[in-house]
Amino acid sequence: MAELKKLLILPGDGIGPEVMREVKRVIDWLDRRRGVTFEIEEDLVGGASIEARGTPLSESTMQMARDADAVLFGAVGGPAWDHLGFANRPEIAILRLRQELGLFANLRPTIVYDPLVSASTLKPEIVRGLDMVIVRESTGGIYFGEPRGIETLPDGQKRGVNTEVYMTHEIERVGRVAFDLARKRKGRVASVEKSNVMESGLLWRQCMTALRDAEYPDITLTHVLADNCAMQMVRNPLQYDVIVTTNLFGDLLSDLASMLTGSLGMLPSATLGTVREDGRRHALYEPIHGSAPDIAGRGIANPLAQILSFALLLRHSFEMESVAAEIERAIVRVLGNGLRTQDIMATGAARVGTGVMGEAVLRELEKAPA
Ligand code: NAD
Ligand code: IPM
Ligand code: MN
Description:
Blueprint: E1 6-12, H1 16-34, E2 39-42, H2 47-53, H3 59-67, E3 70-75, H4 91-100, E4 105-111, H5 124-127, E5 131-137, E6 149-152, E7 158-161, H6 168-184, E8 188-193, H7 199-215, E9 220-225, H8 226-235, E10 242-245, H9 247-258, E11 268-272, E12 283-287, H10 304-316, H11 321-336, E13 339-340, E14 350-351, H12 354-367
Parallel strand pairs: 1-2, 1-3, 3-12, 5-10, 8-9, 8-10, 13-14
Antiparallel strand pairs: 4-5, 4-11, 6-7, 11-12
Helix pairs in contact: 1-10, 1-12, 6-7, 8-9, 10-11, 11-12
The structure holds nicotinamide-adenine-dinucleotide (NAD), 3-isopropylmalic acid and manganese (II) ion.
């Protein structure tokens, strides 16, 4: 018998556990109706782990993540822990997971589902049919560059420092992910940086051009300055298919892009590492949103980004494309039936909470033939 796939679930803080609960119902459906069983472990992470163990990511959790075939992550952070130093904050958990598992390519698919065309704050004709992917570099750049810190100068002034730094190999490996993806899509990549003011951005641009020339002559590569890209994304997002960019710009542009689709609560992500010699690779899946302290505990968060993240996990880590697509179709049908959480609410639609939305996805899945 084939070995069971190992799945590690880390719900985290705030709305993390609330939206993860709805994924667990989907996992239960897979088990009951499709006979698909995983070896599942669940653990604390972020603020929840700080409260229980005094650390946002314990060594044993890190080891579980290394051993897993895939990690499904919720969200971490919140005002209760904002006073902690950087080494101890909940957010260090996700940063360490990305870095220590070598998860350098963060794919953020940005799809406007037809029923949600008018949920965007942009005009329907601007966003209808949008289907792009932001490939965000996720283990380098200013998030991890040295030197960093806050120092006190002799005159009492303080100085805060972060460093944007990229090496050739870091740019090339994320570039290959974007170019390979473009080959399966429309053959176009937009590379985004600030080469007009930053040396790391200039190197980024040079490396992307050299890589395209050497290995991907069939791909059309354009270079876009990050500020212009933000503007273009709201002016005419349909011009983009695959975007590849740095850690910080990718963070900003993907939150912006989420509003093209209707809500931050709609965007999933997959963060992938290198394919190793045994053919396996580490991978972590999470919604792009955070712990949403402003709505946590009220049962109103949109669980769809978390469920869509699980669908990406099935697609990219468990070779279960058809089930992944089935879950995505079920979500579109639920939206088509007019169910809305408050973040995507529209006139005439039925406003529901997290649990009812999850239940509705489940009902659609139950309808499909096994
Ligand atoms: P956020 O993404 O948590 O929330 C931004 C806004 O979007 C809020 O108004 C929130 O209510 C809304 N929102 C987010 N997800 C939603 C959902 N699923 N359904 C409905 N509405 C949703 O960002 P923030 O408020 O800037 O950050 C809150 C905390 O989360 C911070 O501590 C931050 O560091 C952390 N954070 C964690 C992650 C992560 O764990 N991957 C990602 C982003 C932010
Ligand atoms: C994200 C988040 C994280 C990031 C934080 C929580 C460290 O905003 O995944 O988009 O900045 O990468
Ligand atoms: Mn972010």
